[in-house]
Write a structure and sequence with these properties.
Blueprint (H helix, E strand, L loop, with lengths): L38 E7 L4 E7 L1 H11 L3 H18 L7 E8 L5 E7 L3 E6 L16 H4 L3 E10 L2 E8 L5 H13 L4 E9 L4 E13 L5 H22 L4 H8 L5 E8 L1 E2 L5 H11 L1 H11 L1 E5 L6 E5 H9 L4
Parallel strand pairs: 5-11
Antiparallel strand pairs: 1-2, 1-10, 2-9, 3-4, 3-6, 4-5, 6-7, 8-9, 12-13
Bound molecules: zinc ion (ZN).
Length: about 325
């Protein structure tokens, strides 16, 4: 677990010098405001044993939209999914990833995102062109997601072990169906909130983007958990409107009782990808000599485009011939 304090920040991650404290003292666990728009803060409400994870994600949401050229509805759902991946990444043990996959029969067709314990998230939607943003109300996203679908989560448990669990879409809302996922898969009641609000009139629909996850630890006060969830559902969007631009610290000050909240971990969030030419070369090697020779004869080169970040890799024919001649394959 990462603890607060300058020593835990990745290089270049700490900016700004405003020192605002959330708690009344300056000891460990005090929430110090960092001038950073995309950030994850994970902590504990000590009196009630409730875990609270908050993610502020406007920049990475806009970067994902620019990377994939997504139309408005696709951009919003991708931003919600990336925010969820950041929240769930914070629940993972060190150096591991989770991914969330949604399959549906509506125009979006599906999405895939993943997140890790360092704050790196990436993802894509199957249909980037979905513009219609729903009609409001409980089934806001139904016209985009359709009538049937699944949400599945793959968690890296470490040591080469993975755990996959799925739920059928019922809420047709990512936050609502993630709550069902936690209840069914982990037998864990959860409050999940994912929201985005425009900025500058409607000029920037992804002006403020954030997510919140609350889960009880063993022995937690479940009445307090239910009451907090009810209050947060009422207060989350108004707080995002009022304090979204000020970042995670301001949001948490507005949402949780500060004297009781202990920060366990916080780090910057970013949209990025781990793809590389080396990975493409490894994939070519995995094809086998015969298939690679066939590809070389037919195509003259190899091309691959990363679905997560749209980077296009071209491996020239000479390089492939070299691999074959060296007996690398
Ligand atoms: Zn990539």
């Amino acid at each position: 677990m990462r603890h607060p304090g300058p020593s835990c920040w990745p290089a270049g991650g700490r900016r700004g010098s405003r020192l605002l404290t959330l708690a009344g003292n300056a000891g460990s666990g005090t929430l110090v405001a960092i001038d950073m728009s995309d950030e994850l803060v994970s902590g504990l409400l000590k009196k009630t044993d409730l875990r609270v994870v908050f993610a502020s994600t406007p920049e990475l949401s806009r970067q994902a939209r620019a990377t994939h050229g997504t139309a408005p509805a696709a951009a919003v759902l991708l931003s919600q999914a990336l925010t969820a991946a950041a929240l769930m990444g914070a629940l993972q043990k060190s150096d591991s990833r989770i991914n969330i996959q949604l399959e549906c029969d509506g125009p979006l067709r599906g999405l895939f995102v993943d997140g890790d314990t360092t704050g790196l998230v990436r993802g894509y939607v199957k249909n980037t062109l979905v513009e219609y943003s729903g009609g409001g109300g409980q089934y806001h996203w139904r016209p985009v997601l359709g009538n049937k679908g699944f949400l599945s989560v793959l968690r890296d448990l470490g040591g080469g072990e993975y755990y996959r669990s799925s739920v059928e879409l019922e809420a047709f809302d990512l936050a609502g169906d993630l709550e069902r996922y936690f209840r069914q898969s982990d037998q864990l009641p959860s409050h999940v909130m994912l929201a985005q609000l425009p900025e500058g009139g409607d000029a920037e629909p992804l002006g403020h983007v954030a997510g919140l996850l609350v889960q009880p630890l063993p022995g937690a006060d479940l009445e307090a958990f239910a009451a907090l969830g009810e209050r947060l559902r009422r207060d989350f969007e108004p707080a995002l409107k009022a304090h979204g631009a000020e970042g995670a610290s301001a949001m948490l000050r507005a949402l949780v009782p500060d004297e009781d909240f202990e920060v366990m971990s916080r780090y910057p969030l970013r949209f990025g990808c781990s793809c590389s030419k080396d990975r493409v070369l490894r994939a070519l090697l995995a094809m086998g000599r015969e298939e690679l020779t066939d590809l070389l004869e037919k195509e003259g080169q190899a091309e691959a485009t990363c679905q997560f970040c749209t980077t296009r890799y071209v491996i020239p024919g000479d390089e492939i011939r070299g691999m074959l001649e060296r007996g690398a394959i």
